[in-house]
Each structure stands twice: as C-alpha cells, then as structure tokens.
Design goal:
Distance between the termini: 24 Å
Radius of gyration: 25 Å
Order of helices and strands: HHHHHHHHHHHHHHHHHHHHHH
Shape: globular
Largest sheet: none
Structural class: mainly alpha
Length: about 500
C-alpha cells in the first residue's frame, strides 16, 4: 500500500512539543511563549496520546492483511529491531551521565529499564531516561496488537468502532475516578501505567482498519476532509488551552491517558484521506525526513540535554545556559538526522540480516536467563545484606558484560537458530553448550582483569561456575520446552 507520508511529519511536531515540555526549546519557545500559545507549546500529554493513536493507525496500515497469515514472530522481530537498538543506546548514554554513581543503583531498577518494563513498576517509571517510560507502553501495545488484529479479522467495522469507543469510555471513567481519589499519592501509577493508555492505541488501530476497509474508497471532497481535519485540530487545541494551568478549568480531568484520543483519531483519519494542498506540503521530502527522525529525537533528547548541559558547564563559559538555549534545539535536530540516516537505518538493516537465523522468543528468554542466572549465582554464593552490597559493582559489570557477550556468542555459535531445536541430541545441545561455556570464560577474564587492576576486592571463582551451570540448565530447559511444544516446528520454518 502507498505510504501516507503526510502523517509522518506530524510525529515530528508532536516530538517537538515533548522537547519543549522538557526544557529543550530555549529561546525559540520563549519568543512565542504567550497565551494562548503557551499551553499548546508544552502540551506533551496530548502529544504522547497522539503518538499512541498514530502508532495504532500505522500498525493497522502495515500489518492488517485478512487474506494473509499474521506472522507474529516476524512482526515482533521487526518492532524489536525498529525500537530497541536506539532505546538501549539512550539508556547507555544515561548510564554514562551517572557513571560515578551507577554501581549504587539497585539492580532491579537497572533490569526494569534494560527489559523496558519500568512503567509497570510505578516507583521505577521515571528512572534513568524519564522519557523512556512510554517505550514500556509501546512494547505493551506491540505485544497486544497481533491478538487484537486476529480478533478484528472476524469482526464487522461497526462492531470494532463501538468496542473501541466503549473501551475508551470505560478506561476514562476508571482512570479519572482513581485520579480524583488518589492523585498525587499514586501519580506514577496513574500517569504512566500502560493499561491506562491502551484505549488510545486501540482507537488508532480501529481507525486504520476502517481506512483500509472503507475509508480509502470514499469519495470525499477535499474541502470536506480539510474541514473535518481543521475542526478536529481546533477542538483539541481549545481543550488544551481551557484545561491548562493558566485557566485551571477543568484541570481535574487528566489529558495524559487519552481523553482526547477519539478527536485525535478523527484528525489522523481525516489527514490520511486528505488530498488537498496541505497533504502535498506535508509530503515534501524534507518534512518527511524530519518526521522519520522523530523516534531518535524522542528517545535521545533527555540524555543529550543532560550531557550537553554538563559539557557546557565544564567549559567555564560566561553564560552556558544562554548558549544552551540558542544551540540545543538545532543541535538535537541535526543529531536526530545524523543518527537516523547513518546509524539507525544501517543498524536496522544489519540486524534484520542477522535475525533471519535467530528466534526472537529465544533471544528474549535468553536475556532474561542472563539476569536470573547472575542474580541466583550471587545470591547462592554470597547471600544478601551487607555482604552482597560489597559485590554490587562486580555483579553490575558481570551483568552488562553477559548481556552483550552471551548474545554475541549465542548468535555466533548458532544457539538461537530455531532449526537447531529439531536436530539430533548433539545438534540440540552443542551450540548451547559451546556458547554458554565460551561466554562464561570471557566473563571470568573480564572480571579477573577488573580484580587485577583493583576494581574489586575479591575474585569469587565459584560464582562463575554457578552462573555457567544455571545458564546452561535454563537455556537447555527453554529449548527443550520449545522442542516439545513445537513452537518452531519444521513445517513453520520451511514456509
């Protein structure tokens, strides 16, 4: 299907608003920071909801194919490749910023961020890169989408619309009842918990299905479509202004969890159908390119703000904040463009080739096993309390080394290839045994080097033996379950 590039640039606009909300607009925002523009310029809550609705719409455009089998594994692999590399890069930038204190951070807080689970644990929702909580929500959407789509194949368009509206209404009633009763005591739960945002994604997905089934065949006059789009935008902006801090009415109704999602769905559908001059302008290659950088801008802007501000302060400039205010926004846009075209796109292409012989479910489970194995090895050998705290820095280095090295060795020794699950016993065990053993040897060398140069007081050899045994046992167990259940059956691998 032809791309709807007129939607792409709207992502960039939404991300800019988020940047402004987080203090990245500088003089460019202050120049136009007057009422009624003021609340619009920092309406990050509505912008995030718009991105969720647009995500659902685009997911349906790309993946809703009733006459074709929905390849869930391929879908999740594509989503992982699209989002996780830059997400992990942004996380590492935050770790670099907090390098002096990173060893004191709780391992469970680190793990929830590594596995993109932070928004499910309210006390960790704003940890590390505080903008990345929304990635937990997006990954939740992507986990739900295949099952929703398979259900939607069998439903009428009318039923889908009614169900999406009812789900949205129930979600709003529950959320706002909780908001009135429990804000601000449970703010992190009420604002960031993924379930509260699901209705926005569902509305967008149903909007995309309507467009594919009926909308694109509609003969709508350009003036009518443009009128609907403009009306929707004005309605959303009017509510943003009315509910802002300036007017205080009705501020008790929280925009963060999709109150305007139906209006935003209409805006997106109207723009998708639009054939006026507006769409021709939005289809300009330069604007589309800016839109393509939106994810990079979103996920990287917080650590870049922190690192850039610190760098300016360390230069002993007369007014580092003034320089930041003038230079950050154009710098961030330039960084976004460079990363998208020269890092993100090439990296995605490379990963897609690598992952053609990798089972994503196995990879994800192996990464979970890495964390579980190291945790259990230290707990079994060291125990808890103060003695464990002495080894916290060692455990953190061992985890990060294992997270990278074990993945590399698993791919390199073919331990993640689903076809190996159905070979002989030797073919089944050998790649796992080799990759785990080589990984453990590499980990012991890294930790020994750290011990030799004085990073750690002890070199606990038994931990590596325990980690090797737990890692090998759990890895083989997972593969045995896959083999017995036929998760990657030879038939499915050949089709």
């Amino acid at each position: 299907m032809k791309r709807l590039d007129q939607l792409t640039f709207t992502r960039f606009i939404a991300i800019l608003v988020v940047l402004f909300f987080h203090g990245g607009g500088g003089v460019y925002v202050r120049a136009i920071d007057v009422f009624p523009l003021s609340p619009i310029l920092i309406s990050a809550t509505t912008s995030v909801t718009y991105l969720y609705v647009l995500s659902g719409f685009v997911m349906s455009l790309v993946n809703y194919r009733p006459k074709e089998k929905f390849d869930t594994s391929k879908y999740w692999t594509a989503r992982f490749v699209r989002l996780y590399p830059l997400y992990l890069f942004s996380f590492l930038l935050v770790c670099y910023y907090y390098l002096d204190s990173i060893a004191q951070i709780k391992l469970q807080k680190t793990l929830t961020n590594v596995f993109v689970l932070q928004a499910w644990v309210p006390r960790y929702a704003q940890s590390f890169n505080y903008a990345s909580w929304s990635m937990t929500v997006e990954f939740f959407f992507y986990a739900v989408f295949p099952f929703f789509t398979l259900w939607a194949y069998r439903q009428s368009t009318k039923k889908l619309i009614w169900v999406s509206v009812i789900v949205w209404a129930i979600s709003q009633m529950i959320h706002n009842a909780l908001w009135i009763g429990y804000f601000p005591e449970f703010e992190n739960f009420l604002v960031y918990f993924p379930l509260f945002h699901l209705s926005s994604f569902i509305l967008g997905a149903v909007g995309g299905i309507w467009y594919l089934r009926e909308g694109r065949e509609q003969k709508i006059k350009s003036a009518t479509g443009l009128l609907v789009f403009t009306g929707g935008v004005l309605l959303a902006l009017a509510y943003i202004i009315i509910s802002s801090e300036t007017t205080k009415f009705p501020h008790g109704i929280q925009l963060m969890t999709g109150l305007l999602a139906p209006v935003l769905t209409i805006i997106i559908v109207a723009l998708a159908l639009d054939k006026s001059r507006l769409s021709k302008i939005l289809n300009n290659p330069a604007l589309v390119a800016l839109g393509e950088t939106s994810y990079g801008l979103y996920i990287l802007h917080v650590p870049v703000i922190w690192i850039y501000q610190r760098a300016l302060e360390n230069l002993s400039l007369a007014d580092p904040q003034l320089i930041f205010d003038y230079t950050f926004l154009p710098l961030m846009i330039a960084v976004g463009l460079l990363i998208h075209f020269y890092i993100d796109q090439p990296l995605r292409s490379w990963l897609k080739k690598i992952l053609q012989r990798v089972s994503m479910p196995l990879l994800i489970l192996d990464l979970v096993i890495v964390a579980v194995s190291i945790y259990l090895a230290f707990r079994l050998r060291i125990g808890g309390g103060r003695e464990y705290d002495v080894y916290r820095k060692l455990a953190l280095l061992m985890f990060w080394s294992a997270f990278v090295l074990r993945t590399v060795f698993s791919v390199g020794f073919n331990a993640l290839n689903p076809s190996a699950l159905y070979g002989s016993l030797v073919q089944f065990v050998r790649p796992v045994l080799i990759s785990v053993t080589v990984g453990s040897a590499a980990l012991s060398v890294i930790i020994f080097i750290g011990y030799s140069i004085g990073w750690f007081e002890n070199f606990p050899r038994s931990i590596f033996v325990l980690d090797w045994a737990i890692m090998l046992a759990l890895s083989l167990l997972v593969r045995f379950v896959f083999r017995r259940t036929g998760f990657h059956s030879p038939k499915s691998l050949s089709t």
